[in-house]
Every structure is written in structure tokens, then in C-alpha cells.
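thread: overnight batch results

M.L. [08:02]
morning all. the overnight job finished for the chain we discussed friday. pasting input first so we're all looking at the same thing
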Amino acid sequence: MRERVQQWLQFKRYTWRNYDISLVVVVILLSLISAYILTIIDASSFKRQLIGMLAGLIIVFIFSLIDYHDLCLYIPIIYIVATLMAAATRLSPLGDDLSTNSYRWLDFRIIKFQPSEICKLVVILALATFFSRSRENLKSFKNFFLASAIALVPTFFILIQSDLSSSVVIVVVLIMMLVSSGIGRKILGPVAAIVIPVIGFLFWYIQQPNQKLLKGYQLERITGWLNPENQGLGVMYQQNNSVVAIGSGKLYGKLLEGTDTARNYTSVDVTESDFIWTPIGEEFGFIGCMIVLLLLSVIVIKCFIAAKKARDYLGMMIAIGIGVMFCFQTFFNIGVATSLLPNTGLPLPFLSNGLTSLLSNMMAIGILLNIGIQPYRGSSSLELG
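M.L. [08:03]
and the structure it wrote out:
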């Protein structure tokens, strides 16, 4: 009885008028666009995507009611479980490569699960919790290395899957959360002075004939992107066809032309996931793409607004991490589809096919909503509650 009273008081103290319904509406619109595009690509996927969207909305509602402070109390256990799952994809019999030579999934017979998608959100929560608890003594190299270790341990297991793109997302999130944490230029300055030249050297090294860091197909994608004129029928074939398909959508797209009009995206692989922007561009045209991009931008902007208005430092850091994750994945996915970046596999938030990605994104939205309805915001917004 006492626990029920405490739960009721917890819900009662939330500032419900700040519940961001418009954010939920944007997520629903993107999910419906995804369901429509995926139905065009594969008619049998509509029911699955619709079920995923409904399950995702339930997750949004549930996580919006869970106080993120309570959630972060259990983050050490959640972090260990997520890291072990990432390791299990490559180091246990549960790992499944789905015939792609990339062990990114765990096969539980009933469902296949991609731990790297969950790891992104878990790392954000773990870093935010660490920064919050270490805030009084944050400006030290010790805390810098501890924060880096928190992010890089699961990143290592994701990297050996091999999932370079998800690893890069986590590293970018780490960098931006370090910059936002208040750790200070005296720590980040010397680190940047060392890391930036090292990155430059590694970029030069991977282009050498006997480099050992990247696998053959990964290197070919980078060199092909750097020299597209030599790889028009090679590794750049998919991206070149993607650009042609997007361009063929012109201003208004082919949506109103019916199914009789030929679609160029049929010559592009994985249009249901990594190259979802290709059929979006061809079906909706430039105007439609700008509308979809606007909807994605609204989510990112709302993340940073939530960070600014957050009740405390912990909420601010979580919102920043989620915003960076959504922003970078959107930029990277569209950059690959338009040949602005080397070809790599990253889902477009709320649009690409993939249940694990969709549900983890929905969890992030639920947490973001909870940050927004916390009470006692204002002048003490960066003080821990």
C-alpha cells in the first residue's frame, strides 16, 4: 500500500502540462511514413512495421512515466548486461551474422536482437550518470579516462562484430558529452592536441597497401568514396544508383505517378534500412524530403531544448546525448545515401526497418519526455534533485 501511495505521489508531482505531445505526433508521423515506404518496397512488411510502431508508442508512454533518476540508479547493472550482449554477438553461439559476415545480432529463436542499438542509449545514460556523480571533481584526467572507458568498452565489442558505423556513433556521443560536461579545456585541449594528429595519421595509414586496421571491404568503401571515378561499377555502384534514384524524384517525386512508372531505387540494395532515404527521395521528391528532414530536425531540436530546460545536470546530459545520437545518425544515413560520405550501415531514426532500432529510439523519446515533465525547473535547473 505504501509503495502504491509513493507511486501515486510520483505521478502527481510531474508537471503534466509540459508533456510534449507534439514530439509524440512527430514520431508517429515519421513512423507512418516509414510504414508507407516499406510497404512500397515489400508489401508484407506493413503489418510488421505497424505492430512495431504500436509497441514503440507503448514503450514511449511507459518510459515517459519512469523517473530518469530511478532509471539511472540501475544503470551499472543495465550497462553490464548491454556490454555482455554486445560481446555475445561475436563470442557466443547466440551470435548470428544473417549471412552478412557481420555478427551484429543475437538469435533467441523467437526473435533476433541487435545489442548495438541498445548500447548507444545505455552508454548515454551511463556517461550522464558518471558525469553527474563526479561533477564536483570532474576536471581531472582520471575522470576523462574513466568516462572514455565507459564508452569504449562496449564500443570495442561492437567494433569486432564488425559494426564500424555504430562504433563511430558512440565515439561521437562520447566526444560531445565530454565537451558539454564541463570537464574543461585544460583536460580536453591536451587530449585534442594528441588525438587529432593521431586520427590524421590513421587516416593516412588505412590507405596504405599493407594496413591492418580495416577489413578489405571497409577499406574499399573509403578508397572508392575518395576516388569515385575509378569505382563507378565497383563499391560505388550502390551509392551512384542511390544518387540517380533520389535525383529522379525531382521536385514533387513519383508518388502520384502510380506504380506503372519505373523506380530507380529497385537497383539499390537494403533500401528498407541503410538506404531508406533513396526511396523516400524518389517517391516524395525534394519537397517531400525537406518535410521529412524537418520532422527529424524537430526531434533533434527538441532534445536540445529539453537539455536547456532540464531540471538538473543529469537530465541535461541525457538529453544532450540523445540529441547528438539522433543528429549524427540522421546526418550519416542521408550522407551515405547521397554519396557525401563513405558507404556504411546506420539506420535512419524512426524510418529504417529494424525492430531493435525502432524500440531503442522509442525508449530514448520516452526518457526525453520524462525529463520535460520533471518539476522544479528554472533557476535551479542544473542542480541535482
